[in-house]
Amino acid sequence: MNSSTVRGAHRRSKTRGRHSYPATRSLSRVASGVLGAANAAVVLAIAVSLSLVGTGGTYAYLNASAAASPGATITAGTANLTVSSGSPSWTALAPGKSVTGTFTITNTGDVPLKLSATITTTMTPSGTANPFTITVANGACPASPSVPSGTLNSTLAAGVTTSACLVVTLPIDALPAAKSASAAITATISGLQQ
Q1: Which residues form the domain of 102?
Q2: Contact in structure between 103 and 86 (CB atoms under 8 Å)
Q3: 29 Rama sector, left if φ>0, alpha if ψ -120 to 50, beta otherwise
Q4: Residues 91 and 176 in one domain
Q5: What is the 3-state secondary structure (H, E, C) of the chain?
Q6: Which of 8, 59, 141, 158 could form a disulfide with 100 if both were Cys (CB 3.0 to 4.6 A apart)?
Q7: Shortest CA distance to 135 belongs to which of 178, 168, 98?
């Protein structure tokens, strides 16, 4: 063998320690690894399929249902209020003075109600600005000259009656046009179920 042949043969192989491998050996290992993994996956899929077929039986979801009859009847509650007006003593108001009137509220429904009041006025002569301060307070009106403070906000149980106080005040700094004004007052009492 001449020296050029030996050098060529040496380039085609790699030497690691005592073993020599052809240069193309690493590519064939990768290819055989990929094919080997694919072959293993196919064998595994076939084995799983055969084991499932060998067990026999039917595969299904089991389901059952039954109708239930309620043991009690459920009915809706009722929310009702009645308001009875007392006999308030309304007199002409001077600036800085108040008039009061007690009235009662009864919860005739069967649920507790949180009370509130909304006040509307109709002024005479029409177009006149309302000079009055009007509120509804919890409880009966105190003896004059005391005036209750606060607003109607109590909770009234079913079947219970309570008193409330309508308070009308003409402020001390009322405009001169207020001396000939009058107001028709409507107090709407509402109850919100609790």
Answers
A1: 81-193
A2: yes
A3: alpha
A4: yes
A5: CCHHHHHHHHHHEEEECCEEEECCHHHHHHHHHHHHHHHHHHHHHHHHHHHHHHHCCCCCCCCCCCCCCCCCCCCCCCCCEEEEECCCCCCCCCCCEEEEEEEEEEECCCCCEEEEEEEEEEEECCCCCCCCEEEEEECCCCCCCCCCCCCCCCEECCCCEEEEEEEEEECCCCCHHHHHCEEEEEEEEEEEEC
A6: 141
A7: 168
Query: Does residue 141 sit within a domain?
Result: yes
**Do residues 158 and 110 lie in contact, with contact meaning Cβ atoms separated by under 8 Å?**
yes
Is the domain of 22 the same as that of 86?
no
- Total domain count for the chain? 2
Tokens of 46: 């076939």
The pTM of the full predicted model, rounded to 2 decimals, is 0.58
pLDDT digits (tens, 9 = 90+) for 65-121: 677 666 677 778 888 899 987 666 677 788 888 888 889 999 999 999 999 999 998
In one letter, which amino acid is 193?
Answer: Q
